[in-house]
Amino acid sequence: MYDSIVVGAGPSGGRISANLSSKGYKVLMIDLKSEIGIPNHCSGLVDERVVNIVGQDLVASGKGALEVVKHITGNRNIVRKRGGIIPIGPTELGLENIFLVGDAAGLNKATTGGGLYAALKSADSLSMAINKGSNILENYKKIWYNNFGKEILRDYEMRKILDKMEKYYKLWVPYVLTNVRGINAIGDVDYPSKILLYLMASSPLKINEIIKNFILLSNRNHNYSK
């Protein structure tokens, strides 16, 4: 008899399995793949926060890293191609004694599709809720929201704004490009909303230029496929 059954041995599944096991829970972790982590599904940036959570050894051990390095250093031979759907947007975090973490809960940044840090934080949030003993789902929701959920919701709202503004890319892309130095200074791969707040705060300095460009764009047919 197991206390918990974890379906999926990815970052969030592995994290919560380790967390619960360390607290004395008997955990069964199952996965479709015959070899855990192969093929590697993470092709994004692994930042210091993730390294601090899982350790340098786990970050560096995934297959596929060599292919990325070869590509960056000039080897243009494509070894293989892979793709998949990245779920985004608010969803229920569970029902009764079944809980969702990471990709299964759509806990990815809607701005970039990245979700490694969110996967680990959601696993930690659920672990803390389980350790509280009662009202697990409600506690999970509260802990997740305070841990990182607020940022995921902000990113989702940003995604909707960007989608609506796509046809006006000739307006906002040049504006962003003129603020690259500031973006690099305050930008945070795990907290994209900081960039939006920075751009909103700096926009009054160039409001006349923005209005002028907006009028020019509005007065002519705009083909955003070019």
> Which regions are unreliable across 5 or more consecutive residues at pLDDT < 50?
217-226
Number of strands: 4
Instruction: Kindly state the percentage of residues in helix.
Output: 40-55%
Instruction: Give Rg in angstroms.
Output: 21 Å
What structural category characterises the helix and strand content? Answer: mainly alpha
Instruction: Return the CATH class of the largest domain.
Output: Alpha Beta
Q: How much of the polypeptide forms β-strand, as a percent range?
A: 5-15%
Mind explaining what this structure looks like?
This protein is mostly helical. The chain has two domains: 4-159, FAD/NAD(P)-binding domain (3-Layer(bba) Sandwich); 160-218, no CATH class. It has helices at 11-22, 48-54, 56-60, 65-72, 116-132, 136-165, 169-177, 180-186, 193-202, 207-218, and strands at 4-7, 27-30, 94-95, 98-99. A two-stranded parallel ribbon has the order 1-2. Strands 3-4 form a two-stranded antiparallel ribbon. Strand 1, helix 1 and strand 2 form a beta-alpha-beta unit.
Show the helix and strand layout.
Layout: E1 4-7, H1 11-22, E2 27-30, H2 48-54, H3 56-60, H4 65-72, E3 94-95, E4 98-99, H5 116-132, H6 136-165, H7 169-177, H8 180-186, H9 193-202, H10 207-218
Parallel strand pairs: 1-2
Antiparallel strand pairs: 3-4
Helix pairs in contact: 1-5, 5-6, 7-10
